[in-house]
Amino acid sequence: MTHKWIGLIMSAGLISVAASAPAHAGKDDGVARIVLNGEVGTLNYYFDSSREGLITGLQIYDGLVYRDPTSGEFKGDLAESWSWRDDKTIEFKLRKGVKFSNGEAFDADDVVFTINYIVDPANKIVLYDWVKWMKSAEKVDAYTVRLHLAQPYAMAMAALSGFVPMYPKDYYEKVGVSGMAAMPVGTGPYKVTAVTPGSGYTLEQNPNYFDGPKAKPAIEKIEVRTIRDVNTQLAELMSGNLDFMWQFPSDIANNLASTGEFNVTSKPGLRVGFLALDAAGRTSEQSPLKDVRVRRAINYAIDRKGIVEGLLQGGSETINSLCNPAQFGCDTNVQSYEYDPIKAKELLKEAGYPDGFKTAMGVYRDRPLAEAIVSNLASVGIGVSTEILQYSALTSKRIEGKMPISFLTDGSSSIADVAAITPIYFGLSSQDYAQDKVVAGDLQAGGTTVDEGARKAAYSRAFNRIADQAYVVPLWSYTVSYALSKDLKFEPTPDELLRFFDMAWN
């Protein structure tokens, strides 16, 4: 084993891997092997809100429209064209001759069924907050559908391009929620051929895929595995069992690049990290987090800049608001909380907690960052026990009101608009731990007008109140690191989505 491999292994904390440089087999057998950091909770798209679920859905499903990741242009996908009849009605002309991966023909019945199913609260889809702006769908003829909005919505086309894939009516009515999870059927470039719950799934080219805005896949077969531990991922990559890994620390990216054995790159994304605090007292009426002085103390206690410089690096920056500065409407000129543990202790004393208190924090990723946060809080007397959970389990606990503090990240589903992130946590939904009607009202005002000036003003009011009340702890932005075998060709996009259908062999 060469010195460069030994150094990389030692830097990653690995004990043993293959004894020689990798011999990637992907190009030879035509199978690209890809790793995701988190488990896809279910392949039934509407019941999984994770990034992994969004990525998976992009390969196997299609929506009415598609947003080009380079130009940002909305293009017809399952719809050939569309027109606004008024500010709450969109008429779509559907593409003819499209078939689902099981051979069923696509038409207006599938669109009407899908939309009316997902907007019905009784069906309890996880992504309900992303679709509730729609009221219903109406069939005009076999290839024309009218979409009725519940209210004017500035992000209608963006939401349709990312969150509303079409399901086959007959198949779904036959197999139901669990059947769609076990073997999903879509119109996308790939079809699912095998599923191993908790482990991964296999995709193969969909022979029925039409000539839509997504590329026809160049790679015949994709094997997707879930490996949560980055050291294990790295060992698999180095031993030739993986062709692609991503979302790993910058120090590993630097070391991988130095070997010259992989194509390694880092790109800024829209993802931000933050702590959600139980300001409304959902977990307990006696929760210290109900006191604004305690929430401000937590903000002052965390050395965000130090954590970014020491652990994140690679272009990440601290943030002041629950949004990415690159997003439309993101106002960062708000009350900020620079690292000041003395101020934090003073505020805790004023609030009646001179010796601090104990609480719990849910974590689903980035354990080293979570440990640094816990250490910062401990230094001012706040003892935090961490619960390491899968994303879906943490989300369930949050919805049930059972998590005082949550260390979360959000990539805004790759949409450069604050309407894609902030209302999720401040829209009076089950994930809102502030329940501030003033904030929710301003966010709604910003999302229900197309006047950009009015939108920015409404969002600014919301962000200023959120900061003043310290409802969350905005932490940092993320960059995304990618490592590819020399055989694989893939160009990352700023929206932090993996398009397997854009991959090819060198």
What does this structure look like?
The protein has 506 residues and is α+β, with helices and mostly antiparallel strands. Helices cover 32% and strands 23% of the residues. The chain is built from 17 helices and 18 strands. The chain has a six-stranded mixed β-sheet with strand order 11-16-12-15-13-14, sandwiched between helices. A hairpin with a 2-residue loop joins strand 4 and strand 5. The longest helix has 17 residues. The chain is globular. The chain starts with a helix and ends with a strand.
**Beta strands, count:** 18
Kindly provide the radius of gyration, computed on alpha-carbon positions and rounded to a whole number of angstroms: 23 Å
Give the overall silhouette. globular
Q: Tally the helices.
A: 17
What brief labels describe this structure?
globular; alpha+beta; 18 strands; 506 residues; 17 helices; disordered N terminus; 23% strand; 32% helix
Give the helix/strand layout:
Elements: H1 3-12, H2 26-29, E1 31-36, H3 51-60, E2 65-67, E3 74-76, E4 79-86, E5 89-94, H4 108-118, H5 128-131, E6 134-141, E7 144-149, H6 156-163, H7 169-182, E8 190-196, E9 200-205, E10 221-226, H8 230-238, E11 244-246, H9 250-259, E12 262-277, H10 292-301, H11 304-312, H12 341-350, E13 357-363, H13 367-378, E14 382-388, H14 391-399, E15 405-410, H15 422-426, H16 437-447, H17 452-468, E16 472-485, E17 488-489, E18 504-505
Parallel strand pairs: 1-10, 13-14, 13-15
Antiparallel strand pairs: 2-3, 4-5, 5-7, 6-7, 8-9, 9-10, 11-16, 12-15, 12-16, 17-18
Helix pairs in contact: 1-9, 10-12, 16-17
